Amino acid sequence: MAPLMDTPDASVEMMSSRSAVSCSDAELIARIQRLEQSMRVVMMEQLQVIAEADRRGLHAERGARSMQVWLRELLNIDHRDATTRVTVARNVEDRASLYGETMPAELPQTAAALSEGAISVEHGRVIVAGVRRLPEYARCHRVGEVEATLAGYARQVPPRELETIAERIRYLLDQDGAYQDEADQHEARELHYGTARDGMTVIKARLDRETGATFVALIEPLAAPRPETGGEKDPRSVGQRNADGFAALLDLAIDSDGVPRAGGQRPHLTITIDFEDLKRGLGLLDEQGMPGTLNTGRAITAENARRIACDSEVLPMVLDGESLPLDVGRAKRTAPAHIRAALLQRDGVCSFPGCDRPPGTPDAHHLVSWIDGGPTELANMTMLCGHHHRAVHSQRWEIEMRDGRPVFIPPPTVDIDRRPRPGGKALPARHREHLRDLIPSQRDPAGETCCARPEAAVS
What we know:
By secondary structure, this protein is α+β, with helices and mostly antiparallel strands.
């Protein structure tokens, strides 16, 4: 944000009676800045009046239990706003001593900046809070230096950024107190989760700053907006992107060998569903199977069960008439490690046309469903990212193998002509292939360029 003007400008004053519609762009910008400065100056005048009303105890005379409560009712503002104004007013206005002498404001630099309209009341609140949280020795000997530093920064940065600066100053001057704050945060940590009536899982958490920073570092790249496709931006809201990022984070965690095992098994998602319902087609409603049951006890459609079964450990379980287990077979991963490695080499993380390799653990998708008898082999499988795996199932994309490469046939809702689209490696993988020729060739000891650069095999 450009700094507010320090002195009134005649041209700006002349605009006060003109319609904003008739102003040029430069005049509008100047007018916005000037009005903000004027409002801040008026607010400082109100703070001075509030400080005097506080000194006289007007709130007590009118039956209010505090100055904040009285001001909230008087001005019809939120309690937080009233508290901010009273707190700042008490620190930026001249005070009276016990002997009736006038004493300068506790925070003179902040008062000066407010009087000029250079900073807002919210800036003032941050400065007051930052000074109050200093250790005792710093409040006695360094408060002037700290206040001048914060007031100077307040003229340049917004309140949220100023809070970060104030916190760093406190960490510098009160390392013992800061360490205790972090210890208190660790003790106050909590995470709760439950299932709502509609079957969605609700999570509420308060994390200490270290755990929170770790979470943010992991979730941010996974929840980043997808690049524009055909000029259209990612349609997901921030909340939806965060939820998708969290789902991708869970995929990565459940695929990790570092996750603790329970009963000798890695954590896994369990779906109980009749095998015939799982095999049944997904066309008309009367052809769909009965829903399955998740390990949380909630229902899941047969359609989503089929999608999940594309690349999951399937544990066949024979049930009797009372739905009691009679025999449990051996768990088999539909895409063993060696097949996944070959698929990644051929398809990259996702073979969907134009995919830019979204974050998350890729899924090995069967062209002919394993449930329907499709074999677990390269010719019947392709790698898909979580987003496109869901799209292929929900939108009814068809995938065929032609010359050893997957070809995607869109549904009529996407392309009425259903023109096939060649798939292949995700874009970053293609980019690496395109740049491979730019890598300088190796030279032999004699200084001659080798004719060919051997490919390295990585396992």
